[in-house]
């Protein structure tokens, strides 16, 4: 038989001790966690935020609105700092940070090019902004910034898009970009192409809201039951948050890019065929 190494033995002992401490903690605190509200009320507050309103002057707003302001302000401040102090120091041979930034920008640039190579600047800027907002906004809830509610209790600021109003707003905004992009670049034909997908803003809105809300509800459910509220919520919360941040940013930007390309595609093809035909007509006399 092979002997167990010293490192392996220490790892096993530490793991057993941690597990034992968790079990002892659960046993000793059994009965102490008397919930003040039912699980139905916990879930309802997580969705509607009726009990978590925050006072701004005479207005009572959802915490998601405060989260949105903080996220937008943070992105804008970082963008200014990046443009003034970091971007001028970029080198021809990039380091790790520069390579990571260039990879992200290149991804959105290629996505925009694949949808409409002649007008990729506009759609590229939009999907980049939307993707960054979704990703940063989703990660934001991990910071757990506390705020005081109108009831005098303290809650952590959630992800902005966990509020149904924010999810509907970004879904409708993406659809308007597709609709007016098709109208401006492809005329009535492009607008009609976009109007055919009238359910798009609803599907995008509820896809984002449902994904983020599912993570919130699972975490709330784990926290609610005392036996599960040791260590496990940390892994559950981080896992759901990271997955949703990446997946939802990718899904919305990809859908917006694809549908924008469809609403502006036909006019581009007609122009290309016209240019090819004119080139053939002009070259005919020379050949003769």
Describe the fold and architecture.
It is built from eight helices and four strands; from the N terminus they run ααββαααββααα. With 288 residues, it is mainly α. It has one domain (41-264). The strands form two sheets. The chain has a two-stranded antiparallel ribbon. The protein is globular, with a radius of gyration of 26 Å. Residues 31-35 and 284-288 have low confidence and may be disordered.
Topology:
Blueprint: H1 6-28, H2 39-48, E1 54-56, E2 59-61, H3 63-86, H4 96-115, H5 120-140, E3 146-148, E4 154-156, H6 164-195, H7 200-224, H8 232-287
Helix pairs in contact: 2-7, 3-5, 4-5, 4-8, 5-8, 6-7, 6-8, 7-8
Give, in spatial order, the strands making up the sheet with the most strands: 1-2
* Domain tally: 1
Number of helices: 8
Q: What is the number of E strands?
A: 4
What does the average pLDDT come to? 76
What does the largest sheet look like?
2 strands, antiparallel
Give the SSE order as H and E letters.
HHEEHHHEEHHH
Using the alpha-carbon principal axes, give the shape: globular
Distance between the termini: 90 Å
Q: What helical percentage do the residues reach?
A: over 70%
Unreliable segments of 5+ consecutive residues: 31-35, 284-288
From the alpha carbons, calculate the radius of gyration and give it in angstroms. 26 Å
- Classification by helices and strands: mainly alpha
- What proportion strand? under 5%
